[in-house]
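Minimal example, chain plus nicotinamide-adenine-dinucleotide.
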Amino acid sequence: MKTVLVLGAGGFIGSHMVKRLKSEGYWIRGADLKYPDFSVSLADEFVVDDLRERDSMRDIVHRDGVPFDEIYQFAADMGGAGYVFTGEHDADIMNNSATINLNLLDSVHKLNKKCGLNRTKIFYSSSACIYAKHNQEDPSNPNCSEASAYPANPDSEYGWEKLFSERLYFAYNENYGIPVRVARFHNIFGPEGVWSGGKEKAPAAICRKVAETENGGMIEIWGDGKQTRSFLYIDECVEAVRRLMESDFPGPVNIGSEEMVTIDQLVDMVASIAGKTIQIKHINGPEGVRGRNSDNALIKEKLGWSCTMTLAEGISRTYSWINSQLHRSYS
Ligand code: NAD
């Protein structure tokens, strides 16, 4: 039986990945600061620990002294625009996430040396936030091809940490032969993602606001609503990650949808799914870049993967889940 370690298994993507790997018959150890918020983890073993602690990481990366077959690294200090684009959390975001990545690679390298093995394949979740700000100023025509990452100019410190860590994974690959796979996620959403409290991202926040508002009511949106994004449903993300891990292609590669919408269009879509007429009030707030869309040419070429679910279908599933969560919290 293949063994796998999922770091960040208490988070949104990590907890979905655990479910997927379980269905494929893996033995799974999950690790996180916390258990998943919305369901019981299917991991065979779940370690609640702080991965910034080097000793904790050293204990977690092996099972009875034997390295894992695969590691999925999703643990990071992150959130939506209200968390990563205000600048208020930059030092923590950079320090916390970089420390986890440094600890992981150092621990795996030392374990490999001790065991005389080098078999653990590591997946690292980077982000579309690494792309250059100057290529994302035209909302109708952003450039997020993988090759456009350099010369680098991410618009957030979160993006700079991701770019540094991408390079760190590839350096361990070059110098120590550790097999790595790196993907740049573009706005992953779906059920069991955070939907309140300040770390939620645009699709969840809009679903919550629409669900809380009566027909004919008004919701507030940061910016002029003309900023563009694409959003990828969680099951599609997990499938693309699995394909990348099974392939010989190290990346970095975009994992996203090419169905770009403005934020106002996203609100209209959610309202129509909810069967409501909703007015939008545009207010000042952290927005991020003006335009962003996944460029999927490389992933199509290398993995034969493309997104199959429409945004409307993914939003419909997410809206019903958030709506039911909201009603549960009222009752
Ligand atoms: P998430 O916040 O739900 O999950 C991250 C998990 O890491 C959390 O459960 C958190 O508790 C854990 N964590 C943070 N610091 C830790 C520490 N010191 N020790 C142990 N655990 C710690 O985020 P997510 O949406 O599941 O994202 C997973 C990964 O994908 C992250 O690296 C994120 O940066 C990346 N990513 C996500 C998106 C997206 O749209 N969701 C987009 C781009 C990149």
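The chain has two domains: 3-188+231-255, 190-230+259-293+310-324. Residues 16 and 238 are 7 Å apart (CA to CA).
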